Amino acid sequence: MSALLKPQAEGARQRVDPVTLEIVRNGLKAIAQRITRRMIRSANSFIVKEMEDCSASILDANGQLLAEEAGPPIQLNTVGVCLKTILEHYYPAEAWQPGDVIITNDPYAGDGSLAATHTNDYLAFYPLFFEGRLVAFSGLMVHHFDIGGMNMGTRGWGTEIYQEGLRIPPLKIVEAGILDTKVMSIILTNTRTRDMLENDVISQISSVKVAADDVLALFRKYGSDTMQNCFTELIDYSERRTREALAAIPDGVYRHEEPLLDDGAKGGPYYLRVAITKQGSDVTLDFTGTDAQVKGPINSPLATTLAAVYYVMRCVTDASIPSTEGCKRPIKVIAPPGTLVNARAPAAVYQRMIVCHSIVDLVMGALAQAIPDQVMADSCGCLYNYTIVTQPDSGQRTVFGEVVPGGIGATAYADGIEVVACHVTNCHIPPTEAIEMESPVLYLRRELRTDSGGPGRYRGGVGQVLTYRILGPDPELQHTSQKSVSLPQGVAGGRPGDGGRWIINEGLPAERALSHAIGDIEPLARGDTVTHYTPGGGGYGHPSARDPAAVQRDVRLGFVSLAAAEEEYGVRLDPETLEVVGLIR
After folding, report:
1. How far apart are the first and last CA of the chain?
2. Could you check whether the bond before residue 72 is cis, i.e. omega within 30 degrees of 0?
């Protein structure tokens, strides 16, 4: 048994000098970054080594966030939530020993859905002891490609959690430094990519363990009391700064709603609804009125709903505020159990990002009524593109997959960003050459999608057009898009971005458009081409207020067509020279 190092009482706590506090703050952040970098460098999975789909955090002995890596926000904001569930329901502080590593991937661990984001995301935690006492944790979430389930990569339209692969409740995969090979055997027996998963799980375990030396070096340098005082002051400082920013938002109640599955597939549309109450420096987001969870994989665990909310609130406060537990303290979330934003077992949750991306637009849309100059127009939403081929002789499967980029919404100060995996996804877009080296596809086209960004004083970011040919046998397309019917909306008079669509064998006699943007796996044939038109972001402000020189630049760069320059912005350009020859306003 080991003692838990408790923070000192306020009266006994000594103030830390600002220089030391800043050194510790940056030191903890750098340690979180090194955890992630180690994981990326040692991974075999394409989704980790190229797309960098992993996130690390340093947390105090109570599971409170101290520092984090700038990875996918949907992961970052759930690491601490999951650790608190483990401490409360499975392993209290006194049950941890030096050398332990606890892992889980169960969204329903504990009492509710405050744990893993979905089954493919494994979380690993390592306790940090100094002078025999538990002082902190390192945590790392990693998206592993295949952990079993009804379909490879847990794709397709599952209807219950039992179809989404092996679930591991929080358990010690390493105890006192000894790897439990029986647990590893169970994990590796339930995957189609055994060698890849074995390498990456061991890499994940090693990455959180190596962080111990870095954190404990700070404890040895400054001592336990100073470090614990730093932890407390960092969290309190973030809370003070966050409250200052929130206090500037006008008090009131702000409401908004967003549709899901708006093309009618799988029984939609369904709706997310929120009422945001701002009073003083406190904000309550009440999702009462949101539709009930569905028999499909889009339901969001409460953990990921909180992550999406925290992300938006960080966007509308000061970016210089350190990301610690203090940023969350002024924010209260009411999410009725059994709804799309607070899934209850046995609801499927794999594609919870459909809901989470819509939560971003939902909360931004409500806050636009109070602080229109601090929010963004709607963005492209959640976009996935996976093709799997199967070799008939061996049954071996080869995968092409990416988190697809689209356009981000504009703000009161700038155009939206072009072609990016937006908001709570925030994954890297791999080079074409890296994708083709490991994937059964040949890229034919990848280009900016002209006129997809919503017109406005500031234009929405444009999406992309992607076409590839399938090279392998027995292929299946597993596709996800949003914003195909209900377009990405603009703010303050800005117009919507264009929606997305999928076309098979475009320009050929066998051309066909997919009837819905999210749903079942689509069977294809070797040699087929897949073309995905991704949505653009919404615009900000009326298009007539856009600088004609900016419109001219957009036409030169291919963001806007000559016709749209005139029709949407009232700017007539010479077709040959692209000089402005007239304004129609």
Report:
1. 76
2. no
Neighbours of 111 (CB within 10 A): 9
d(CA 195, CA 197): 6
Tokens encoding 61: 């002995």
Q: Parallel, antiparallel, or unpaired: how do β-strands 121-130 and 133-143 relate?
A: antiparallel
Domain boundaries, the chain: 3-240, 376-546, 548-585
Against a cut of 0.70, is the pTM above it?
A: yes
pLDDT in tens, 299-346: 999 999 999 999 999 999 999 999 999 999 999 999 999 999 999 999
CA angle at residue 46 from 515 to 142, to 5 degrees? 95
Residue 14, pLDDT > 80, answer no
CA 107 to chain centre: 16
Looking at residue 531, the DSSP 8-state letter turns out to be E
Q: Which of 14, 18, 15, 36 is nearest to 26 (CA)?
A: 18
pLDDT at position 520 is 78
Tokens 């920013």 label which residue? Answer: 245
- Chain centre distance of CA 553: 32
Cα Rg, the chain, nearest whole Å: 24
Helical H runs in 149-223? 181-189, 194-222
The type of residue at 482 is Q
Average pLDDT over residues 103-126: 97
Q: Are 51 and 427 in contact (CB under 8 A)?
A: yes
Q: Is 580 within 8 Å of 548 (Cβ atoms)?
A: yes
CB-side exposure of 531: number of CA atoms within 13 Å? 15
Q: How many CA atoms lie within 13 A of 518 on its CB side?
A: 31
Helix (H) and strand (E) counts in the chain: 11, 23
> What pLDDT score does 11 carry?
46
Give the residue carrying structure tokens 């079942």: 520
* pLDDT band for position 353 (cuts 50, 70, 90): very high
Q: What is the DSSP letter of 585?
A: -
CA proximity to 338, closest of 392, 388, 301? 301
